[in-house]
Amino acid sequence: MPSLSDLQDKLLVKLRGWLETAVTMLPNAVLALVVVVVAGFLSRYVHKAVQRVMHRVTHNEQISDLLGTTARVAVMGLAVFFALGLLELDRTVTSLLAGVGVVGLALGFAFQDIAANFMAGFMMAARRPFAVGDLVKVAGEFGKVERVALRATELQTNDGLWVLIPNKDVFQAPIINYTRTKSRRVEFDVGVAYHHDMTTVRSVVVEALEGLVLRDHERDVEVFYIEFGDSSIVFKVRIWLVEPDQFNYHVARSEAMISIKKAFDREGISIPFPIRTLDFGAATVGGETLTPSMLRAVAGVDDDDDDAGLTEATSAGSPPSPPPASAG
Fold first, then answer.
1. Which CATH class is domain 4-110?
2. Full-prediction pTM beyond 0.90?
3. How far is 94 from 96, CA to CA, in rounded Å?
4. pLDDT of the chain along its 328 residues, tens only?
5. Please, where are the H alpha helices in 58-179?
6. Domain 184-267 adopts which CATH fold?
7. Which one of 2.130.10.10, 2.30.30.60, 3.30.465.10, 1.10.15.40 gives the CATH number of domain 129-177?
8. What's the rounded Cα separation, in Å, for the pair 208 and 219?
């Protein structure tokens, strides 16, 4: 068993060795400290420089600040590793690098969706498909852009709802930007009765929409017949607007429909609707099945008239009220 004096000698030798090492490494320690201090001042300038460059690329303050902070941390990290190398702590540097790699890999797997949203946020900031205040339709949602963050995009729908969409979904989905559109088209279908002259109907519609206030008067009103329907001839109306915002779109569509209805009423043009005759098997519940004579009586056609007269009476003008399903 070593004596107390032997332990004291070993301790003194150890302390003497540490002191000699400290004296030997003192210049390196001072140099390492200088490197860290200089890197601290340099990182501030790098942070500001990166922010200025990013402001030219994107107007997103969060991305500019994040990239500036990342550059600052990177400069400080390099300085710390260089300082450890000057202190001949190579094993410590190796251990730190290995630890950072393992932690980064684990975090990448654990937060891959969050990382995907952040990367999508960076790409959107560079491409700038829309800006705050734009009216867009993206990922099935329609509304005004309230905020574009790194992780998600905030929309406010027309009915006042607040919608948060992850940037990954925004980046991968088709985007319709109504604000960047210089003009917008309103279109809807209208049906007229078969006995009206199609050329006259088209002229009436065009004349009715010529004076629409919100319409782009440099473009013609477009009317195209598209279908022979069950009870009407269907045509499509198209008008272009100068202001593409959603409010003007709804107002123009409403005013166009009102103008067409007034013009049709003035010219005696009817918009028919389907006519249905219902027979619910009245005989099975003690009633009588509707006969042609009953139909003629409801339609106001004499029994002497033929079926063609019945058809003409029920298809022209306003249809009669539905007859009762059973008699008796």
1. mainly alpha
2. no
3. 5
4. 566 676 666 767 676 766 666 666 677 777 878 888 888 888 888 888 888 887 777 666 667 777 788 888 888 888 887 877 777 666 666 777 677 777 777 766 666 777 788 788 877 877 788 888 888 999 888 899 998 877 889 999 888 899 999 988 998 888 988 888 788 899 999 999 999 999 999 999 999 999 898 999 899 999 999 999 888 999 999 999 988 788 888 999 999 999 999 999 999 999 988 766 666 555 555 556 666 776 666 566 565 554 444 444 444 444 444 444 444 3
5. 61-86, 90-110, 112-127, 167-172
6. Alpha-Beta Plaits (3.30.70)
7. 2.30.30.60
8. 15
